[in-house]
Amino acid sequence: MSGENGQSPALISGSEKNVTKGVIIGAADSSATGVLIFESNNKALILPKILDPTNSVKSPSAGMMCYDPIAKMVCFYNGNNWSYWGNIDL
Question: Which of 16, 42, 67, 72 is the most exposed place for a label (fewest CB within 10 A)?
């Protein structure tokens, strides 16, 4: 997502049914577009809140996601590096 290369030592094997839409979880189809789509009328994905995960998390696992409420960014560890998504006011 951020152009960073990385590795995951434990990937779950499987196959995508619709490679043009990405992976859809929770429904057979979706009108949304994206790489990973969660569909539900009564559930949500809630990330753990961690302040400064780069320095706070001593041994992150590949695929770890969290939210930094101070920086207001979603943080993702790809196995080698942290990547960040959010609005940055400079």
Answer: 42
Instruction: Output the CA angle 76-80-81, nearest 5 degrees.
Output: 45
CB 39 within 8 A of CB 49: no
- DSSP labels for 41-61? SS----PPB-SSHHHH-SSPP
pTM, 2 dp: 0.58
Give CA 54 to chain center in angstroms. Answer: 16
Provide the β-strand partners of residue 72: none
Phi, psi of 83 (to 5 degrees): -120, 150
Strand order of the sheet with strand 65-68?
A: 65-68, 73-77, 82-86
